[in-house]
Write a structure and sequence with these properties.
Blueprint (H helix, E strand, L loop, with lengths): L5 E3 L9 H9 L4 E4 L3 H10 L6 H6 L5 H11 L23 H19 L6 E6 L6 H10 L4 E5 L6 H9 L4 E4 L12 E4 L1 H5 L10 E6 L2 H10 L6 E5 L32 H5 L5 E4 L5 H9 L4 E4 L1 H4 L8 H12 L5 E4 L9 E4 L8 H6 L11 E4 L5 E4 L5 H6 L13 H8 L5 E2 L2 E2 L26 H9 L17
Parallel strand pairs: 1-10, 2-3, 3-4, 4-7, 7-8, 8-9, 9-10
Antiparallel strand pairs: 5-6, 11-12, 13-14, 15-16
Helix pairs in contact: 1-5, 2-5, 4-5, 5-6, 6-7
Length: about 475
């Protein structure tokens, strides 16, 4: 089939919101929502009163109404919570997550994909991180119930995902092996999702979405193409200039004078070898220019993935105040991104936009009291008694040490879970203080001001598409008779 030339990247936690994905898909791109922590995102939108009614409109189409009723009873607040009130905490994800969290996760992913697909005939994808394994099955199932067209996954080696998609589409009970630190050879730690049990009867058969693996090397692409549990349908090839989590440099970690990882010739993807696999691939990492698109096509790519340029457009889920500050910095040649080798508890380098009053500032980072109450990046580990515990290098240090962690692993670690929620205006409130944001962006952010027109301080997703395609007007909208659903 013909795949879109431009993929709108799945960024942050709901920075790639349903509004952004819906818009870019209408304009001919692959509109992608971020599936990261969607259970928390949707629960907090409900607690904030769901002011535009979008969550409840989408949930009205969920095929098991009783589940929606339970979710709304737990989280929805008519008129929204008071500004100084905190958000109702969700259960933290574990290998055997509670039925309530599973329901919330499925419903949340369904709602976000449903809204992204409403009112047009374009295609929509969901982006997930391989490192966040525990909610994966429920997230995938919710997205597939809403008819998601593509699944994109990186930040790890997602060899098992193609087979999981096959199994879920067929309505089979499906298990995913969970990586547990210190697990013994005979340990079998698995998360399960049984569609029949979820439905309380025979589950429907679903369409199996295309699977695109996000890779940074030909070696990984070759491994996934040959050794995955099912069909890999293509690749997004990310260079180290891309935002979010970056693949670590090959070989021992070395830092430059600024403290950033040093990438060398070995880290440049061998595109000829990737092209030889015969699968579609897109290039990502500062490719948001028309000449870069032409170069990608000339290199045999299907197209490009663009993240940062869309992250700061009007339709993104980023807090508008944060978005405006970064655009202003770009316009004044003050925008800066730091590839932080320590920020993420995953151990992957993580790109952080340098902004005042965010976790990029050492003073803001040190002033924040360590709290781990979302738990998406916790790592399962084997306790001495053989049970599974959970720890995060960004949690309170004394707690981490009690769980067998090493103090050096906590140095410089930032709570991405809470920080990314604050970036989209859903930061937790504790004792009257709102969590500080952490903004991730690719190196491209220094140049986003080129998308602004004269006397403008913002731009739209259509402006990005028009710029990339060299068009005087945006692509036609792919509407359907159901355009009013969103």
């Amino acid at each position: 089939m013909s795949h879109p030339v431009i993929i709108q990247g799945g960024m942050g936690a709901a920075v790639s919101s349903w509004q952004l994905a819906n818009t870019t898909s209408r304009l001919g791109a692959l509109g992608v929502i971020s599936g990261t922590a969607l259970a928390t995102v949707v629960a907090r939108r409900l607690k904030a009163g769901d002011p535009d009614g979008a969550m409840r409109r989408a949930m009205a189409h969920f095929p098991i109404p009783a589940m929606v009723e339970r979710v709304l009873a737990r989280y929805f607040v008519e008129g929204g919570k008071a500004d100084e009130e905190n958000y109702t905490p969700n259960p933290m994800p574990t290998i055997e997550s509670s039925p309530a969290l599973t329901e919330l996760t499925v419903v949340a992913n369904f709602a976000e994909v449903f809204l992204a697909k409403a009112g047009h005939t374009g295609v929509v994808g969901i982006n997930l991180l391989e490192k966040i394994q525990v909610p994966t099955l429920a997230s995938l199932y919710g997205a597939m119930l809403a008819g998601v067209d593509y699944v994109l996954m990186g930040a790890g080696i997602p060899r098992a995902i193609p087979g999981l998609l096959d199994s879920l589409a067929e309505g089979k009970a499906t298990s995913q092996k969970i990586d547990v630190i210190g697990a013994l050879p005979d340990d079998d730690n698995r998360a399960w999702f049984d569609p029949d049990a979820f439905w309380g009867g025979t589950a429907p058969r679903l369409n199996r979405p295309f699977f695109l693996a996000i890779v940074a090397s030909a070696t990984l692409a070759l491994t996934l193409a040959r050794k995955s549990t099912g069909q890999v349908n293509g690749f997004v090839v990310e260079y180290e200039l891309a935002g979010g989590h970056n693949a670590p440099p090959r070989g021992p970690m070395q830092l430059d004078a600024n403290g950033e990882p040093i990438y060398g010739p070995r880290d440049v993807p061998e595109l000829d070898k990737i092209a030889a696999l015969g699968l579609p691939f897109w290039l990502a990492g500062s490719y948001a220019k028309p000449e870069k698109l032409k170069a990608a096509l000339a290199a045999g790519a299907t197209g490009i993935q663009v993240g940062t340029a869309f992250a700061f457009c009007n339709e993104s889920g980023m807090d508008p105040a944060v978005r405006r500050r970064m655009i202003h910095a770009s316009r004044n040649n003050q925008a800066k991104v730091f590839t932080d080798p320590l920020a993420s508890p995953t151990g992957f380098p993580f790109k952080v936009a340098v902004m005042a009053d965010t976790l990029s500032e050492d003073s803001t980072y040190k002033a924040r009291k360590r709290v781990c109450d979302l738990g998406y990046l916790r790592q399962p580990y084997r306790r001495e008694d053989g049970t599974v515990g959970y720890r995060c290098a960004s949690e309170p240090i004394e707690n981490y040490l009690k769980k067998g962690g090493k103090v050096e692993a906590t140095e410089g670690r930032k709570c991405l879970c809470n920080g990314l929620m604050a970036t989209i205006g859903l930061g937790q409130v504790r004792h009257g203080i709102t969590e500080p944001p952490i903004v991730t962006a690719g190196n491209e952010v220094v140049e986003v001001a080129r998308l602004l027109g004269d006397e403008q301080d913002s731009y739209s997703a259509a402006d990005v598409m028009r710029y990339l395609l060299g068009e005087s007007s945006p692509a036609p909208v792919r509407e359907t008779e159901h355009a009013n659903l969103a």
